[in-house]
Design goal:
Layout (H helix, E strand, L loop, with lengths): L5 E5 L3 H12 L3 E6 L14 E4 L7 H21 L4 E2 L3 E5 L5 H11 L5 E3 L1 H5 L12 E5 L3 E4 H14 L3 E4 L2 E4 L2 E4 L2 E3 L3 E4 L5 H4 L7 E10 L12 E4 L4 E6 L5 E5 L17 H14 L8 E11 L6 E4 L6 E5 L9 H12 L30
Parallel strand pairs: 1-2, 1-13, 2-9, 5-15, 13-20
Antiparallel strand pairs: 3-8, 4-8, 5-7, 6-7, 10-11, 11-12, 14-17, 14-18, 15-16, 16-17, 19-20
Helix pairs in contact: 1-5, 1-8, 2-5, 2-8
The structure holds flavin-adenine dinucleotide (FAD).
The site of flavin-adenine dinucleotide has 36 residues, from helix 1, strand 2, strand 3, strand 14 and strand 18.
Length: about 375
């Protein structure tokens, strides 16, 4: 089925909104449903910023997808007349000569994606202060940066509507090949369930996800810490990430260690003292001048984790036209528009589902985000 078909997309986080946008752009008749406002506080896509980095160790797939998504985010920004990507670059702090960063450097080079291996002295010039005594080198991706997350999702929904999609705020229930909304059975040629952390509840027999509480903290700092200027950064081995002060929100410095189990509907969204302690411990190690910086804001988000941190993109085994999309695993945002192209190709029968994104049980691995995948609270 190429263009011209009808589709219901349930969930207007980044995955669902990007899918609705891409299918509407291709001429599908699209209905996008979300039980809350798109980008609402309980969704995983909430918040103002997400890192867009292409380094994914030896994995060429996610590397290429990130670069493709970067192009698509730029095109979307141009079409809505808004800056969606902040060209800040991303710095990877390498503790070893033969770790994740060295693998990423080789993969980026093979993919012709710009990356520079900086010695510690050169790396220190990227930040107002940077402690490098435990680092071997810094891998810098000049083409990477920061996505303005809330604006990105809003732009996807707005553009989808401009292409003819209908947006409805309503809770959808699974009803076989159809969707049940407000007592009515709704049908379409295709249905895509892109429900983030709620996906496993809707399809418990098919989807295994761990949903964890992740605290996001911002610290007050001087103008020298503004992003752009200061790049985004990831410390893979120490499971930490952040960026400078974007739009006066404060310097973002967070642990990527997987938090406690979390219920996205009923969980209290209160920052834990342990998270502040962990962030301050990292500031003391890496950016010592910020160790006593005031905590200026914070919010709680959740990871929807597959065992191997690969996404879920597969057909329902009993209903040919029903597709399940999710398992962002704490690194899905940047890939949104590239994932959407893939999903649209699947719905149009141009490609078959990929084994790596299959439903069902997967072996435990946790390499695609940071080493935090192997560390649990
Ligand atoms: C703290 C944190 C930091 C992160 N950092 C990065 C980063 O730097 N870079 C990066 O690329 N990624 C990052 N991520 C990951 C990224 O944000 C997620 O992978 C992505 O947002 C997941 O989007 P989603 O569309 O799958 O889910 P969601 O955004 O949760 O969207 C699901 C939507 O489905 C709706 N819904 C659920 N059930 C129903 C129903 N029955 N009926 C109707 N609607 C329903 C919900 O209301 C929600 O709006 C981070 C995530 C977190 C939590």
């Amino acid at each position: 089925m190429v263009g011209g078909g009808s589709v219901i997309v349930v969930g207007a986080g980044v995955f669902g909104a990007a899918t609705a946008h891409e299918l509407a752009r291709r001429g599908w008749s699209v209905t996008l449903l979300d039980m809350a406002e798109s980008g609402n506080t309980r969704a995983a896509s909430t918040g103002e910023s997400r890192l867009l980095r292409c380094g994914h160790g030896t994995d060429r797939w996610y590397t290429d997808w990130a670069w493709r998504a970067r192009t698509l985010w730029r095109e979307l920004g141009a079409s809505v007349g808004e800056e969606l990507i902040v060209d800040a670059g991303v710095a990877w702090f390498a503790h070893r000569d033969d770790g994740w960063e060295a693998s990423s450097a080789a993969t980026l080079e093979a993919a012709c994606i710009p990356a520079e291996r900086l010695d510690c002295e050169a790396a220190r010039r990227l930040f107002p202060d940077l402690s490098t005594d435990d680092l071997s080198f810094v891998l810098y991706e000049p083409g990477a940066g920061v996505l303005r997350a809330r604006r990105c999702v809003a732009a996807l929904v707005r553009q989808a509507i401009a292409y003819g999609a209908r947006y409805e705020q309503a809770k959808a229930c699974y009803d076989g090949a159809a969707v049940h909304v407000d007592g009515r059975r709704r049908t379409a040629d295709r249905v895509v369930w892109a429900c983030g952390p709620w996906l496993a509840r809707l399809f418990p027999a098919l989807i295994e996800l761990r949903v964890t509480k992740q605290d996001v903290l911002f610290f007050g700092a001087s103008a020298a810490w503004r992003t752009p200027g200061v790049p985004g950064w990831v410390d893979y081995d120490m499971a930490a990430y952040g960026l400078g002060d974007l739009d006066g929100q404060g310097v973002k410095c967070n642990s990527d260690v997987e938090g406690p189990a979390f219920d996205p509907d009923t969980g209290e969204r209160v920052i834990s003292p342990d998270s502040e302690r962990r962030s301050r411990g990292y500031l003391a190690r890496r950016f010592p001048s910020l160790v006593d910086a005031p905590l200026v804001s914070g919010h709680v988000c959740q990871y929807a984790l597959t065992a191997d941190t690969e996404f879920i993109i597969d057909r329902h085994p009993e209903h040919e036209g029903v597709w399940l999309l999710g398992g962002g695993s704490g690194h899905g945002f940047k890939h949104g528009p590239a994932v959407a192209e893939h999903v649209a190709d699947l719905l149009e029968g141009r490609i078959e589902p990929y084994q790596r994104f299959r439903l069902g049980t997967r072996a435990v691995a946790g390499a695609l985000r940071t080493a935090g995948g192997g560390v649990r609270e």
